[in-house]
């Protein structure tokens, strides 16, 4: 059996994943990256996107929102604000959130100062990531 | 001597109050369990976070970050975190008293003070001072990380704009179900995190950082502030329920005492009435002879 790395995904409301996996793919600051067993110590910030990992033949997908990740001693730890498995995502809600965010951004384009652009953009990114994660599973 | 009916009514009223306080006690204890679970769930996050923070700050120069810059303190901002609801003993007023005491101390030193209130109770009292810059109310019942982020972002912007040279956060610390104490902690400028374990120091040098340490710090520091606020809010949440439990327990006991006393009064009054009636009857019988 191939060597494995311990994966831990921790959010403010508790640990979401805690298991040994073959490979982890995550949306890092400078683009997606993959981590295999015995990776060198590494620290990166994480963008909103999709985290996936593989154990045996099985691949799991999670939507994660911003945070950072740390690799040390053959262990990879993600500290993110939220993490949801693709099959647990409420697609309707994500769709609605996406529409809302798009509307807000459209308003901002029309020079409506009441809109918090950064927040709307983050909401849109989260919604898109959720939809993606729910589709691949 | 109060009439029999009055006393009876009073006993019934106090009994109803006791029922309510007892119910509130039970609700508070159920909510306390929830709040404690929330705190428990958050603990791994904070411990990992602090570990990573100390790894990071070990290798970098702290003065170069705007959030860490310590200036001459002319203005102080205090984030006062209280609960939204009352009926929890002296819990909120203790926090507010601490805030007022600190305000007086700072003003005696010639510093300007402003408040940011999280939770309704603190705002209700402190807005009388006219120094509340911003208030976040009605969020304590079910807050999430993003509530904390809102507060942290606003406060750090205010700090970066130079409107506040120092920020403190005041909240009720949850020590145990019986003990909650108001505490004040430094918030901004960010203090370098001391690493608790020696072992973490050793690997820190070999880390690959993506992007650079400085850029990671730029992301981590605001996150660190979020975590601090969120943590304080969790503590207040748990403390509030614990304080309410104690307060309601005391209230229920006080009700029991009152009922006991009133029952004695009631019995005495009843006895007096019976005696008076007997006297009447005996008197009447005597007269007929």
Q: Please compute the radius of gyration of chain A using only Cα atoms.
A: 16 Å
Mean of pLDDT of chain A: 86
* Biggest sheet character of chain A: 5 strands, mixed
Got a strand count of chain A?
Answer: 10
CATH superfamily membership of the largest domain in chain A: F0F1 ATP synthase delta/epsilon subunit, N-terminal
DSSP strand (E) fraction of chain B?
A: 5-15%
Name the helicity range of chain B. 55-70%
Overall mean pLDDT of chain B stands at 87
Using the CA coordinates, give the radius of gyration of chain B.
Answer: 28 Å
Using the alpha-carbon principal axes, give the shape of chain A: elongated
Strands ordered across the widest β-sheet of chain A? 2-1-9-8-5
CATH topology call of the largest domain in chain A? ATP Synthase, domain 1
Report the uncertain regions of chain B. Answer: 197-204
Q: Ends of chain B: how far apart?
A: 33 Å
Q: Biggest sheet of chain B, in brief? A: 5 strands, mixed
Structure write-up:
The complex is a heterodimer of chains A (137) and B (289). Chain A is 28% helix and 44% strand. Chain A is an alpha+beta fold and 137 residues long. Chain A folds into two domains: 82 residues, F0F1 ATP synthase delta/epsilon subunit, N-terminal (ATP Synthase, domain 1); 46 residues, Single alpha-helices involved in coiled-coils or other helix-helix interfaces (Up-down Bundle), CATH 1.20.5. A five-stranded mixed beta sheet of chain A has the order 2-1-9-8-5, with no helix packed on it. A five-stranded antiparallel beta sheet of chain A has the order 4-3-6-7-10, with helices on one face. In chain B, strands 3-2-1-4-5 form a five-stranded mixed beta sheet, with helices on both faces. Chain B is elongated, with a radius of gyration of 28 Å. The chains are: A alpha+beta (137), B alpha/beta (289). Chains A and B meet through strand 5 and strand 8 of A and helix 1, strand 6 and helix 6 of B.
